[in-house]
């Protein structure tokens, strides 16, 4: 009996050890599996040293390249802006935009999955407007602005653009943050300041205006030849109205305000125009930004803006 008990105890002990070994093996195998899974995930994870913006930009590039391949597009990457362009209508003789030029255009913005998120009022024939060198004045995104500069007057193109750090990265329901986009663009016109002024003079019937060496257009609309000429150093009381060439009024005084003449107290165009006038006279002047508010502008006058003024000299002394 005692021998039988010892055998049973020995068998029980052996089974217990075998169970412990089995459980330890299972634990070890599970641990190894976890380590393997971690290593696999880590190898596929983004480089922790890569900045978020750089990683998103790289991912956008991959999405755009896949989109180009899928749609068999003959796209060319612009190395300066990083956008991809597919010209669907080329106009080699079209006017190339340079700083200070006004561009009018139509556009449709969509995600790469085809969802349209924004567009100009194409159906109503109201183009978007931007001045090169002053994109914020047109409330235009950096990606659209970069694409426009790659086109000439009359050209049409598809622009594929990764996110731009100067755009709003917060995103929205239609266009989440860091989303690549497609723009379909048609450039209606590219006009220099001089061309804008010429168009305005024709439209307003002011083609008889004198053009001075500074680019000022001066047209006397009410003459008093017997009155005294305004002189440098005098203080002139002036009634005036100032507008952008699109007709938007930015300033006016109908009762008369005092200005020092020829001392730099007013814009250069005024200093030039006032000494060409006499008390009681009226004139219309149209001027380039170089003798107005220049490349910086002055709110609400945008940069590079040609302007028009109606001026009346009430008195000068």
UniProtKB/TrEMBL annotation:
Alphabetical UniProt keywords: Isomerase, Rotamase
UniProt keyword Metal-binding, yes or no: no
Reactions performed catalytically: [protein]-peptidylproline (omega=180) = [protein]-peptidylproline (omega=0)
Domain PPIase FKBP-type: residue ranges: 100-191, 233-317
Isomerase as UniProt keyword: yes
Gene3D superfamilies recorded: 3.10.50.40
EC number: 5.2.1.8
Pfam family, one: FKBP_C
Protein family: Belongs to the FKBP-type PPIase family.
PANTHER family: FK506-BINDING PROTEIN 59-RELATED (PTHR10516:SF443), PEPTIDYL-PROLYL CIS-TRANS ISOMERASE (PTHR10516)
Protein known as: Peptidyl-prolyl cis-trans isomerase
Lineage summary: Bacteria, Pseudomonadati, Bacteroidota, Cytophagia, Cytophagales
């Amino acid at each position: 009996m005692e021998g039988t008990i010892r055998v049973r105890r020995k068998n029980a002990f052996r089974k217990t050890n075998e169970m412990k070994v089995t459980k330890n093996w299972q634990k070890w195998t599970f641990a190894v599996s976890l380590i393997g899974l971690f290593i696999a995930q880590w190898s596929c994870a983004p480089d922790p040293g890569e900045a978020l913006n750089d990683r998103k930009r790289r991912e956008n590039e991959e999405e755009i390249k896949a989109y180009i391949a899928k749609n068999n597009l003959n796209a060319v990457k612009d190395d300066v802006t990083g956008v991809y362009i597919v010209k669907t209508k080329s106009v080699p003789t079209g006017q190339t935009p340079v700083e200070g030029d006004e561009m009018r255009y139509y556009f449709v913005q969509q995600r790469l999955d085809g969802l349209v998120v924004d567009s100009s009022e194409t159906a109503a024939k109201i183009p978007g407007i931007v001045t090169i060198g002053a994109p914020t004045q047109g409330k235009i995104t950096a990606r659209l602005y970069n694409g426009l500069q790659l086109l000439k007057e009359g050209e049409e193109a598809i622009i594929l653009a990764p996110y731009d750090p100067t755009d709003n990265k917060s995103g929205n329901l239609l266009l989440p943050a860091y989303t690549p986009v497609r723009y379909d663009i048609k450039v209606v016109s590219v006009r220099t300041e001089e061309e804008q002024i010429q168009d305005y003079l024709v439209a307003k019937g002011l083609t008889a205006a004198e053009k001075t060496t500074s680019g000022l257009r001066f047209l006397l609309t009410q003459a008093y030849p017997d009155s005294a000429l305004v002189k440098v150093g005098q203080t002139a009381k002036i009634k005036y109205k100032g507008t952008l060439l699109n007709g938007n009024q930015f300033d006016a005084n109908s009762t008369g305000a005092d200005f020092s003449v020829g001392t730099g107290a007013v814009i250069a165009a005024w200093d030039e125009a006032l000494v060409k006038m006499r008390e009681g006279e009226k004139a219309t002047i149209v001027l380039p930004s170089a003798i107005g508010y220049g490349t910086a502008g002055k709110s609400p006058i945008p940069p590079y803006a040609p302007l028009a003024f109606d001026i009346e000299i009430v008195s000068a002394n």
